[in-house]
Specification:
The protein is an all-alpha fold. The chain contains 3 helices and no strands. The radius of gyration is 17 Å and the shape is rod-shaped.
Length: 81
């Protein structure tokens, strides 16, 4: 049960983290005035750099969680090399 839940959370977090990363990069390419407005509207304030960092950390965490879930699934099946 926890293995399936971990895989679902990993996939969902990976998708959402990637969307956040792409949107932060997109906002960072806008001109100054538009960037400030878009940051407030879509990211909730702060800097685009901090959102890029946070999205990167979410993606790394989800990759690690997915790896642990895959290891758990392999051990549960009893398949060992």
């Amino acid at each position: 049960m926890f293995t399936k839940l971990a895989k679902i959370v990993a996939y969902l977090g990976l998708v959402l983290g990637t969307l956040r990363l792409v949107s932060a990069f997109w906002i960072a390419t806008l001109p100054d005035e538009q960037r400030l407005q878009a940051t407030r509207a879509y990211l909730g304030g702060g800097t685009t750099g901090s959102y890029i960092d946070q999205a990167f950390y979410v993606i790394l965490f989800c990759i690690a969680l997915g790896t642990v879930a895959e290891i758990s699934q392999t051990l549960k099946r009893g398949v060992r090399d």
